[in-house]
């Protein structure tokens, strides 16, 4: 643990180990400390926590801490080492993240297709995702230390993903693959809804609406055009709730009362 | 075009228009210019180019330019406006990106599931992805101006995605839905008998409805309860067509005329 970061946090309390806990993000020769912090934050938002830095230009660094926001714990626990070889020791599977095709590198796979295999490997041991330097990317030698090359399908006219953005996208794909399309989300409250209106409720609303349309002169029963079918089509696709029917009929009641009252005043 | 940015680039040469070209990223009240630049870069890597800023704290700004890397053209062409309402004028479909659940907001959908529908809507007109302020997120009123709420499944213990990271992930999902595998499918059958109403049309309808509700005594402006948000929720899920707006406003006009006429007869 880095003394400069030691005060920032401690290892989080023990919890269930998932395959994501065995996936390590390795940044090779990162130049900008801001990107290291942003990568830590990106990892943590997707439930990853193990960061390894190979020869970072500046680390630890205040800019890394600032950009990490609430993910300083990932920085505190980060491992710093001098070569990719050391970073990959004890890994059973390493993936090079690279947009460039290498003649001699492993077959490139798209991130989404690669995610299930990466997780399957993580069931068996430590797995590494290897990201290159911001400007130069990964060298051929680095890519050749890996068992897969993974790319992010980007705009061919401008594929310049920020380093932390690349980390974010790969970790996102892993999280979604890990939790099989339905990852646990923040306590999702039951959305506001009242019970659905019955067919009778809805028909009474249509009758009421028709009456008001006639009373106000908007609908001429002799020449109804297609107003009612169009309104049925509109409200028919919404699956009106009981509460909503009450509001709509409340408006119609208010209109009728206002008209009657004025009529009576005359 | 912003004079301070005018030297940075011009509109890119004409090319094939895709649904992604009709998707606008709207950042509401962004605090940090660095995030604006990083969002522009994130957009461009995924082939999006239309950025709208609602009341940015600092823009244009050198930090935005620096973080945009090669995506300054997105900043140069960005639109700055004073309210979300203005930002959404002429959009036919708006999506609130929000992790927080709102009782009266539109039904939340996961980004991956929402992407095909967003693209399908973009076939018909301008679509907006609305992102909130870095600290406060989107207000309930802002969410209620949108037809969908979309969330990114994140670590429930730390879901603090950076703003540009959220932009990156949503744009990535859209790009993959647009270009990967099967063509976008409309998840919800929406018949398009008449063109969809624009946001401005819909807002004018809400304003008209509110006026009639007040005039008839149904809505007490001093004690509005939650009538308007509930009505926004109802009509927000239907994707109103222009023709339907005309009918609904025709009814409201007829009610107003009837009330006025009677008032005048007294």
Automatic annotation (TrEMBL), chains A, B:
Catalytic activity: cytidine(32) in tRNA + S-adenosyl-L-methionine = 2'-O-methylcytidine(32) in tRNA + S-adenosyl-L-homocysteine + H(+); uridine(32) in tRNA + S-adenosyl-L-methionine = 2'-O-methyluridine(32) in tRNA + S-adenosyl-L-homocysteine + H(+)
EC class name: transferase
GO terms for biological process, alphabetical: tRNA nucleoside ribose methylation
A molecular function (GO) term: tRNA (cytidine(32)/uridine(32)-2'-O)-methyltransferase activity
Any Gene Ontology CC annotation: cytosol
This enzyme's EC code(s): 2.1.1.200
Keywords assigned: Cytoplasm, Methyltransferase, S-adenosyl-L-methionine, Transferase, tRNA processing
Localization per Swiss-Prot or TrEMBL: Cytoplasm
Keyword Endoplasmic reticulum: no
Domain tRNA/rRNA methyltransferase SpoU type: 23-172
Task of the protein: Catalyzes the formation of 2'O-methylated cytidine (Cm32) or 2'O-methylated uridine (Um32) at position 32 in tRNA.
Subunit structure: Homodimer.
Entry's family note: Belongs to the class IV-like SAM-binding methyltransferase superfamily. RNA methyltransferase TrmH family.
Protein name, UniProt field: tRNA (cytidine/uridine-2'-O-)-methyltransferase TrmJ
Organism encoding this protein: Candidatus Propionivibrio aalborgensis
